[in-house]
Amino acid sequence: MTARPLRIAxxxxxxxxxxxxxxxxxxxxxxxFAHALTAAGHRVTMFAAPGSDTDLPxxxxxxxxxxxxxxxxxxxxxxDWVVHETHAYLSVMLELAGALGDSFDVVHNxxxxxxxxxxxxxxxxPMVTTLHTPPLKWLEQAVALPGGVASEFVAVSAFTARQxxxxxxxVKVIRNGVNLRQWQPGPGGEDAVWTGRLVPEKGVTAAxxxxxxxxxxxxxxxxxxxxxxFDEQVRPLLGGSVTYEGxxxxxxxxxxxxxxxVALVTPEWEEPYGLVVAEALASGTPVAAFARGGIPxxxxxxxxRLARPGxxxxxxxxxxxxxxxxxxxxxxxxxxxxxQEAMVQRYLHHYAEMVYAExxxxxx
Length: 364
What we know:
CATH architecture of the largest domain: 3-Layer(aba) Sandwich
Number of helices: 13
Number of strands: 13
Pfam families: Glyco_transf_4, Glycos_transf_1
Keywords: Glycosyltransferase, Transferase
Structural class: alpha/beta
Strand content: 15-25%
Number of domains: 2
CATH class of the largest domain: Alpha Beta
Helix content: 25-40%
Domain Glycosyl transferase family: 192-321
Low-confidence stretches: none
EC number: 2.4.-.-
InterPro entries: Glyco_trans_1 (IPR001296), Glyco_trans_4-like_N (IPR028098), Glycosyltransferase_grp1 (IPR050194)
CATH topology of the largest domain: Rossmann fold
Distance between the termini: 24 Å
């Protein structure tokens, strides 16, 4: 715990508004995290994309946008969204390097952009960056700058920490958590469920094939993040026992997952954490997943089954076994490993270490 309420700046996505229904797991995480920090008595200011919720117990300062000239639009060297995103984070970091920096005790960077890291030395408050992804090219090159980066780092799983270690050394692990009061155990049901962004790397087509093979009806929910992928690869597989429920709000997702027999998690990339795993377990719904990234750190034999990555036959068998597991054991696993309360306390302890270390350095 910290000795006094802290003034915390959260850097969120400049592309996707932090509001329901969430564009993805990162937006959901930041939204719920801000709620939890505020409930713990701290003052939170979030830098987020235009359209983010403002009727909330924290302050939202939209990231800056600008009108690109017609001549600039003719330049094919970079997509428009890349330029707008760079402008947004450059503006925020310049503000934090100026008078606005005195308004905060700590800056917590959840963006996936390189500029907050590259400019961390220019701001007065200490910065911590949560590594929500593997080493992406732009992020890695910022961390590898001569002299290092003036940000501390936290990884969302031991797997992600190992991925980053060759680049920036040992990284503390604080696993993501979910609000166990909001994600309540459901009664279960007969169908399987898949939730998440409908993009190639989330692998929903494997879930559809495995569910049909195992004889389960499958309900799918989430935003269409790649329309071409959805139209060409997902939509043709829908129908019959496979339904797309749409892009749902958190309470609707919670009800859907809680009324399911088993949750499928099918990443085609090394999933850094897998928030949908924690949400399913909190709902009392056992998990059948591909053993990728950080997922094996959460799913054990009492709450789910793992299949080799890409093995649809193995996933089908894992579904049938997982559906027989105890729902109370799944919930207990979430309480032990996926508690938002425990996660927040660990972050607050980390903030306090940073803030008071900074104060000692100044006084010295």
